[in-house]
Specification:
240 residues, alpha/beta
Length: 240
C-alpha cells in the first residue's frame, strides 16, 4: 500500500484538514488505550496548525490529561532560545491548552546534545515501559533538501539502526541537533507529513516517486504505507 496524499487548495483547508484528523486520531487512541502519544514537528510550517488546534473549537474536544507530547527533533539550544522547537510549540499550543506539565515530555538540556539524546531515549522507554515503542501520532515536516526531523542529507544518523534518539552534527551550519532516528519514526502508528511551498516540490517528487537515494533525500527512509499521510498545498504538489 502507498502513502495517502492529500492536496488542499487553500491554506485554511490545509490547516483544517490536519487539525480535524489530529482530533480524530487523538480521540481514537484515547478510546482504545486510555492515552495518546504525539511527536511534534518543529520549524515554521506546523506552527499555524498548533495554533488552530489550541482554539477551543478543537481543543475542547480533547481530554488533554490523557495526551503526552514528545518532540521529533530539537535544536541544540536552551528552551528559552528563539530557535527552540519547544519554545515554538509552547507559545503556539501548550500555553493555550489544559495539559498537565508532566505530560509535556520535552528534551532536557538540548544544548548538551549527546547527553540530551541519551536522556530522551530513556524518557521514551520509560513512557512505554514493557510495551512496544510506537508513537501514536508522528508529525513530520520536510525541508527543500528532503530532510525530515533532523535527518539531513549525508549525515551519520541516516545509518543508525539501534538508537531511538541521536545527536547529529551539521557541518554546513556548525551546529548540533537532536533527532528521533528513522527506526523510531517508522515504528509510529500514524505518520502525518505537513509540507507546504513550491520550494519543496522538487524534493517531494523524489521522496515519493524517485529512485532510492536516502543519503540525498532522507525522507525516503520513512515508510510509505497506509498509515502515512502527506498533507500538501498545491505548490508543494506541483510535480506530482
Amino acid at each position: 500500500m502507498a502513502a495517502n496524499i492529500h492536496i488542499l487548495t487553500s491554506n485554511t483547508q490545509w490547516e483544517l484538514s490536519i487539525v480535524e484528523e489530529l482530533v480524530r486520531l487523538i480521540n481514537t487512541s484515547i478510546n482504545q488505550q486510555g492515552r495518546c502519544s504525539i511527536s511534534l514537528a518543529g520549524g515554521s510550517t506546523p506552527k499555524s496548525v498548533y495554533a488552530l488546534l489550541a482554539l477551543p473549537t478543537f481543543s475542547d474536544k480533547i481530554d488533554w490529561s490523557k495526551v503526552y507530547l514528545f518532540w521529533g527533533d530539537e535544536r541544540s539550544v536552551p528552551h528559552s532560545h528563539s530557535d527552540s522547537n519547544y519554545k515554538m510549540v509552547k507559545e503556539s499550543l501548550i500555553d493555550h491548552i489544559d495539559i498537565p506539565a508532566e505530560n509535556v515530555l520535552a528534551l532536557i538540556e538540548p544544548d548538551q546534545p549527546q547527553s540530551s539524546a541519551l536522556a530522551y531515549e530513556e524518557t521514551i522507554k520509560g513512557y512505554f515501559k514493557s510495551q512496544d515503542i510506537a508513537i501514536d501520532i508522528m508529525l513530520l515536516g520536510m525541508g527543500d533538501d528532503g530532510h525530515t526531523a533532523s535527518l539531513f542529507p549525508g549525515t551519520e544518523i541516516l545509518e543508525e539502526k539501534k538508537r531511538l534518539v541521536k545527536e547529529v552534527y551539521l557541518p554546513n551550519l556548525d551546529v548540533y541537533r537532536i533527532s528521533l532516528t528513522a527506526p523510531m519514526i517508522n515504528a509510529s502508528k500514524n505518520i502525518l507529513f505537513l509540507v507546504k511551498g513550491e520550494n519543496k516540490a522538487p524534493a517531494l517528487r523524489e521522496v515519493l516517486s524517485g529512485t532510492d537515494n536516502y543519503q540525498t533525500y532522507p525522507s525516503q527512509l520513512i515508510k510509505k504505507d497506509e498509515s502515512v499521510h502527506f498533507y500538501l498545498d498545491e505548490a508543494a504538489a506541483k510535480f506530482l
